[in-house]
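anyone seen this seq b4? input:
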Amino acid sequence: MNFVSIRVITADVARLVAFYERVTGVKATWANDDFAEITTTTATLAIASTRTVPLFAPDSAVPAENRSVIIEFLVDDVDSVHRNLTTVVDTFVTEPTTMPWGNRALLFRDPDGNLINFFTPVTPEAIKKFTR
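predicted toks r here
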């Protein structure tokens, strides 16, 4: 089994895709007006319209309600990314902070309120974990 993607349901696909394109620097691939993907070398962030929810099960997902999942991106220099995002992100949840497990992390919310963590490993143990 391979974990390949996470899907975010939104009422405004174009707005959310534009935001993620800007903060990640990755151009989305659009399947149609209701579905797009931001694909990196290790995973995909799928962004889908509320109109896609009934295809799985009616009312099974509700946009802008997440308060438990953090979408995480490994970046080369989280402090530099933070400086570049000050004109894009309205409010940062936390400024770049070195966590006890060795990652320097930046936490903010996307336009739907989903938490995003951009992080850079900074301790030898953390760097080793993410070096392949």
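The mean pLDDT is 96. Residues 13-24 form the longest helix (12 residues). kinda curious what u guys think
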